[in-house]
Every structure is written in structure tokens, then in C-alpha cells.
Write a structure and sequence with these properties.
7-stranded mixed sheet, mainly beta
């Protein structure tokens, strides 16, 4: 059974930082590409960042220079370091694992940026 469990969300003031974690089980983590997506109320789910099995990264335009995705294959965990947070970063953040047509999602973690 595949499980992706996100943690690290919460309430933070504008300009602050948060680090999200996603622990995976039930998959050979090292061969999967991993991604972070987010969905704000009334909006479509969008890609925030992804990291391939060979550590190639890509970012959504709105987070470039502020967010950093990384992975630790020894811990089966992917991270999202979020700095200089803005109110518009408020959303539910989802972890995603994908490879060759297989896609798995976590349950999501809420990030709220508010003063």
C-alpha cells in the first residue's frame, strides 16, 4: 500500500518560512519523481515544484527564487523549503509521486500565510 504523508504546514506571517516534508512508503522511492502541488480555494491545483529521480528540479513561475525542493532517498522523504512567503501562497499543499503512468497523492497539508 502506497502512502505519502505530508507534514509541516501551518500558519505563518508574510515574509516567513515553512518547511514541508512528505514521507513515502510502499514505493521504491529513489526511482520516482516527486512533486509538490497546491490548491487554493476556488482555484485549480497547480504544480509548485518537482524533483526527478536524478535530482533535476523545476519550479512554478510564482515560487522561483523563494521555494526549494529537495529529496533524501535514504529517508524516503521529499522536502519543500518555502521562504519569503506571501499571502497568495495560502493553499493546501499536496505531495505527489509519479513514474511511468503511476501517480500517487498525499492527503495534503494546509499552509496559511496571514498577518
Amino acid at each position: 500500500q502506497v502512502q505519502l504523508v505530508e507534514s509541516g504546514g501551518g500558519l505563518v506571517q508574510p515574509g516567513g518560512s515553512l518547511r514541508l516534508s512528505c514521507a513515502a512508503s510502499g514505493i521504491i522511492f529513489s526511482i520516482y519523481a516527486m512533486g509538490w502541488y497546491r490548491q487554493a480555494p476556488g482555484k485549480q491545483r497547480e504544480l509548485v515544484a518537482s524533483i526527478s529521480s536524478i535530482f533535476t528540479t523545476m519550479y512554478g513561475d510564482s515560487v522561483k527564487g523563494r521555494f526549494t525542493i529537495s529529496r533524501d532517498n535514504a529517508k524516503n522523504t521529499v522536502y519543500l523549503q518555502m521562504n519569503s512567503l506571501k499571502v497568495e501562497d495560502t493553499a493546501v499543499y499536496y505531495c505527489n509521486a509519479f513514474k511511468s503512468g503511476y501517480v500517487y497523492w498525499g492527503q495534503g497539508t494546509q499552509v496559511t500565510v496571514s498577518s
